[in-house]
Design brief:
Layout lengths: L11 E12 L2 E12 L3 E5 L6 H9 L6 E6 L2 E5 L2 E2 L7 E4 L11 H6 L8 H11 L15 H13 L5 E5 L7 H17 L4 E5 L2 H7 L2 E6 L2 E6 L1 H6 L4 H6 L4 E8 L2 E4 L2 E5 L9 E7 L4 E5 L10 E8 L4 E6 L5 E5 L12 E6 L3 E2 L1 E2 L63
Parallel strand pairs: 3-9, 3-10, 7-8, 8-9, 14-21
Antiparallel strand pairs: 1-2, 1-4, 4-5, 5-6, 10-11, 12-13, 12-15, 13-14, 15-22, 16-20, 17-18, 17-20, 18-19
Helix pairs in contact: 3-4
């Protein structure tokens, strides 16, 4: 950091270093470190209460850190002893409810943050073209659909050419069909604008679809930051494995990069120092299994019973239980799509490359669960920061879940409309 608080690294749009934030006895962020490369999109993904919105508020300037520093565009904007006001940080914010000024037209809303810019009209025209609202500039917010209102909010945030745009649960107020459409639109708009962006979400589908990198958070800390495909295929912790996607953690014996499970061997990937030796839990996703209907006749000791079924249109997931009580989620193939609860199937593994977790990561089955280690029932739902925290790792098996329900009480502050 040079004199005047200017960083020598111009390729980082946002950097948080050693940030801590407490609200009374609650620690919202704990030794929090994050970097956003310029021109990229980062998703902060995690359960309600994990601290992701607090991180956004610190970057925007709505909160001050108790420790650590915040940099935006290579300039230090916050530390425990000093803070640059939000309006001077070159940060754009898109709120959950879009916060459009109801008495201003589309054009006036977009122009609001650049009223003194001599090239205002040219800039507004560019942005209306970018977000596909060139013919709607005279319309009022109440005349627009939810998707159109979101595009106005994005254009308004882009107008001052900020170093970073922050989006807080940008799709939470939209129906599912519109969410799917706008994910692609948002990504393309930000790409075309060469805009750095951070968005907060509890929805893994949004994070994996839109972001260049995903930062998975739990208990005020980042568990892992990586490309979406790495987060899914090579999670670093049991929490990441169970929070992102449907996960089965099966007991395994690991030797030389091979994990031997009850269903056969799997190849371990990732850095050599992250491949455990000895007893561990291997990650198996539903698509790692081959499923076939068990033959008629006496029940085989290798047969699993279907105990739950989830249909989502493009896929069917089955929860199956072994005779000894172990349960896993598997993806039903075309030959077994009509299986019903109570039917029996046989399982085997495809050629699988995956990761495994050593016991040192705090993986343990709750006493009295009635299931073997790595086969616990229930969903991966880490508690909020305000609640007593369980040991690291959380539940060992995550079931399919609706990740579209909005989180409780997580929102950035609203904007008061200008008074004329």
């Amino acid at each position: 950091m040079s004199a005047g608080g200017i960083s020598a690294d111009a390729h980082v749009a946002v950097r948080l270093s050693g940030v801590e934030k407490r609200f009374g006895h609650i620690t919202a962020l704990d030794h929090f470190d994050l970097e956003l490369p310029s021109g990229s999109m980062l998703a902060l993904l995690g359960p309600s209460g994990c601290g992701k919105t607090t991180a956004l508020r610190l970057i925007a300037g709505f909160e001050r850190p108790d420790a650590g520093t915040v940099e935006v565009g290579g300039r230090r904007v916050a530390s425990p002893g000093a803070s640059v006001p939000p309006e001077r940080r070159r940060v754009g914010v898109v709120f959950q409810d879009f916060a459009l000024f109801p008495h201003l037209s589309v054009r006036q809303n977009v122009a609001y943050g650049i009223r003194r810019d001599p090239d205002r009209d040219v800039r507004v025209d560019e942005l209306l073209e970018l977000v596909g609202l060139r013919g709607d500039e005279r319309r009022m917010p109440h005349e627009l659909s939810g998707g159109m209102q979101q595009r106005v909010a994005i254009a308004r945030a882009l107008a001052p050419r900020p170093d970073v745009i922050l989006l807080d649960e940008p799709f939470s107020n939209l129906d599912q069909a519109l969410r799917t459409q706008l994910r692609a639109e948002l990504r393309q708009i930000l790409r075309d604008a060469h805009q750095s962006a951070i968005f907060v979400t509890h929805d893994q589908g949004e994070a994996l679809t839109i972001a260049d990198r995903v930062a998975v958070m739990a208990r005020g800390r980042i568990e892992q930051v990586a490309a979406p495909e790495v987060i899914y295929a090579e999670p670093r912790t049991p929490f990441v494995a169970t929070f992102v996607g449907v996960a089965n953690l099966l007991p395994a014996e690991c030797r030389g990069g091979i994990a031997q499970t009850r269903l056969g061997p799997v190849t371990l990937i990732g850095a050599p120092d992250r491949r455990p030796e000895g007893r561990a839990l291997s990650l198996l996703r539903p698509e790692h299994f081959l499923v076939r209907e068990a033959p008629d006749g006496p029940v085989s000791a290798q047969a699993w019973q279907v105990i739950a079924r989830q249909f989502s249109g493009s896929e069917i997931l089955l929860e199956v239980r072994a005779p000894d009580g172990q349960r896993v989620w598997v993806e039903a193939g075309g030959q077994v799509r009509r299986l019903a609860i109570g039917d029996r199937v046989e399982l085997r593994l495809r050629d699988v490359e995956t990761v495994a977790f050593a016991p040192s990561l705090g993986i343990a089955a709750p006493t009295g669960s009635g299931h073997r280690e790595g086969a616990l029932a229930g969903r991966a739902k880490p508690p909020d920061d305000q609640r007593e925290q369980p040991p690291p790792g959380g539940p060992l098996r995550s079931a399919p879940e609706d990740h579209h329900a909005p989180p409780a009480n997580e929102t950035l502050e609203t904007v008061e409309p200008p008074v004329h």
